[in-house]
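pinned: reference chain
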Amino acid sequence: MSIPYSKDFVKELTTIIKSEIGAHLQDGVADLKSRQNKRVIIPNNAIYVEIARNNLTDVFEDKSSPRPLIIMPFIFEPNNPQEVAIWLGFVARFENDKQGQGLSLISISISLIRGSQTKSYILRAEWDSRSIANADHAQPHWHAIPGRPLFDDPSEGRWSNVQSNLHLAMCAKWRAIADEGNFSHAHQFQEKDVISWVTKTLKYARGQMEQCLKNYPMTENVGKEMFF
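pinned: its structure tokens
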């Protein structure tokens, strides 16, 4: 089921982000001429809803995306509240639906970036409608970012490529399906579900990241590489 672009829906997303990180969202029409690379051509009518720029935001260049990611401080270092420990990026993408009924939600992406000065991608939570039909990947899912390998493989570096194709399911309903040969891990958009998913993913991510920072605090004797 598609979710049409509406000011009310965007406003509700805005309220969620603001309550979690004190930021607000803005939407804008992508520029087709300047927003393309060999993998992706963004439709001229695509609308992106993302964290708005303000005096706390930064821009993160993500090589896997044709668009720079605007990021906002999400969690600060426990021992240094002036230093950002985890940044947050948020993007909701709307495009013309196949029935030509206007703009519909295509995907939502929540990114976690580690580091104050030198920034590194950690994880990305995604829900994308484009691959639901063939169910190649779990939807929604956690995506492990290849720039920060989970598996240390300095001799070959092959796990970096493998990791880019990992889509780790988020609360798939496997337990409720008796037929093991016909289970589903890709779920369609429902507006109330998307709102709940964004809210709870942000809260869960904050809790997990804060626990990691508590257990592995930054000190003079512990380098940044000890955590993520």
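why pinned: The radius of gyration is 18 Å. Helices lie at 7-21, 158-163, 191-215.
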